[in-house]
Amino acid sequence: MNRPLDELRYFFTALGYFTRVPVPRWVGFERDYLNAAARYFPLVGAMVGGVAALVYLAALRVFPAGIAVLLSMAATLLLTGAFHEDGLADCADAFGGGYTRDDVLRIMHDSRIGAFGATALVIALALKWQSLAALPPMRAVVLMISGHAASRAFAISYLLTLDYVRAEGKAKPVAQRMSVMSFATAMLFGLPWLLCFGWKFACVSIAVLALLRVVAGRYFVRRIGGYTGDCLGCAQQVFEIAIYLVGLAWTSY
User: Fold this and answer.
1) Which of 13, 45, 169, 215 could bridge to 152 as Cys pair (CB 3.0-4.6 Å)?
2) Of 45, 39, 43, 36, residue with least CA distance to 176
3) Contact 167/49 with Cβ under 8 angstroms?
4) Per-residue confidence at 176, pLDDT binned at 50, 70, 90?
5) What is the reported pTM?
6) Domain ranges within the chain, ordered by starting residue
7) From CA 20, how far away is CA 28, in angstroms rounded?
């Protein structure tokens, strides 16, 4: 059993990996920390969503809902360094422009953004903006937190079932097989937020996320034989948008 200090170190490792928040020096860094820290990724997501919610509520006192949502999105992009959005753009360029497995991996590794990536980013950001701006304020707040948390929980589920396809890479230390216990812990941090709208909404959201996870996972395997760090970022973005759309449809219904 890990000591509490070890778990705190893993949490700070997750926080430092996925955000630009400074972490204490005593945490240090070891490659092995990242895989152990994976169970805290959804908790970090909930914290990022919490920052978005606070900025949104503060901005809402001065600006219309659309501007308040944009400011909250800007805050999360600054906080995370557009970490997952970068994965979405890289995957869109690679899968859209690559024909062979080697082509896809080469394009995905290229830091430059192409037409597919730019288009994907515009569509993704627009969907987030319009979905959240159309919601009543408190529902938007809850969805911001649950969207960031639950999407990360489902994204790291690929660590449980798929293979990492690069010999090296930024995500390589994370990409060791995740234990069932660690995944259960991640789900505990990521999914309960969905219950804020009731168990029916939570069940529908989880069902939609599970379906998207299967479809995306099979596509990754068919195209490149597994996943990369960019694939995880892309999946997180797709799952987050799906939660917002389900929340909007639920409210409209």
Assistant:
1) 45
2) 36
3) no
4) low
5) 0.93
6) 4-252
7) 16
